[in-house]
Amino acid sequence: MSADRFSELLPWYVNGSISDEDRAWVDAYMKTNPDARSELAFYQSLQTRMRQNAPAVPATIGLDKAMRLIRGDQPTFAEKVSAFFGGFGMRPAVAFAALALFTVQAGVIFTMVRQSNNDTDEIRALRATKVTEGPMLKLNIAPDAKEADIRFLLMSVGGDLAAGPGQLGDYYVRVPAGTEEAAKKKLEGNPIVQSVALAPGVPPRE
Amino acid sequence: MNNEQVAALLTRIATKQDQAAFRDLYKAFSRRVYAYLLNMVNDHARAEEILVDTLHEVWRHPTRFRGDSQFGTWLIGIARNKALMVYRARRPDEIHDDLDDIAETAAAETPDGFQVLADKQRNEGVHHCMGKLSDEHRECMHLVFFDGLSISEVAEIQRCPEGTVKTRLFHARQKIKNCLKLLLQRDGDVVGASGAPA
User: CA-to-CA distance for B191 and B34, rounded, in angstroms?
Assistant: First the structure.
């Protein structure tokens, strides 16, 4: 019974939180039970080892982060990236490697897109290469008209495409000065032209 | 730093948003809370993260500390809650291996066995054996032997009756003791009936 009580009190005796009364009891017990001293020595040694195993960190560990938090500062870019990838369970080094890979891939894709845009230059040549002012013709062309037919149509009246097609399918065509009426009549007879009219110029945002 | 000094700093934080007071408070308790957290989560970065979060909580709500307990004990209670939220989702509650399985069944004690263990145990051995304990047992051992808390303070932090603390401590001590014995035996230092190293 006494041994059980001694064993129960021992941790609190070792860490110093025991009451004076219990401390006196433990001291008295150890005087009559010399073996108990070795148990005490074991737990004192254990306590010493545990405290020696404590990480040797400065009292300022994490203090900078805490101060930034209380000042309401924004986290640094590196912290944002780390936090973002940390959410996926990735370590910072892996996160930065992933970021680098992403950057390279983005560069490759951008280059490919640019090359792709160059390939469509011919098609886009149908669009106006220069915006002109002054009287021009406003055409509405059949939706099923082919690009080649439209090109041929413009060539037939010596016209340049100034703008279009707009949201309503209108094209604005500049023809040589003084030939507007003649060109209008010629275009009216073409089957792919649904309507044609004289216009004072290209309206805004066309 | 005693509770009166802490209360003075907390008042400065509450009334003036005093960053210098916060800094003093932080430096006074950071190492202790960090050691507790590292023992809980076994991850330096995560321990630091939870430490910052814990002290930030104090900055945001300085008046929540009523002085009913030691400030350090109260702070560890906050850190514990935050650690459990992070930790329980990521790691099983207990780690078992051969040392755990035999830990309590090999409890046959010899008269001089404690003395041999006291003489021979190494820091690494203690660290290793602590790592073999369940979370609750390891926490209990840390709070008692590292932090030097009383049984009522441990019960407050672990949110359990004092009797439960005694039980946890009993089993944890048995496991630690027998784990250390086993390590010594593996290293060739036999803790036998004679109690003398081989």
Answer: 35
Q: What is the pLDDT of residues A76-101, one digit of tens each?
A: 556 566 666 665 666 667 767 777 88
Q: Which residues pair with A141 in a beta bridge?
A: A193
Between the alpha carbon of residue A83 and those of residues A66, A67, A77, B40, the distances in Å are 16, 18, 10, 22
Q: Cβ(B58)–Cβ(B49) under 8 Å?
A: no
Q: B30 vs A60: CB contact, 8 Å cut-off?
A: yes
Cα–Cα–Cα angle for A139, A190, A141, rounded to 5 degrees: 35
A52–B contact, CB cutoff 8 A? yes
Binary contact (B117, A53; C-beta < 8 A): no
ipTM reported for the complex, 2 dp: 0.76
User: Closest Cα of chain B to A41: distance in Å?
Assistant: 6
Q: How far, in Å, CA of B178 to CA of B108, rounded? A: 9
pLDDT tens column, A119-158? 555 544 445 445 556 678 888 888 778 888 888 888 888 8
Backbone φ, ψ for residue A170 (5° rounding)? -85, 140
- Specify the pTM: 0.58
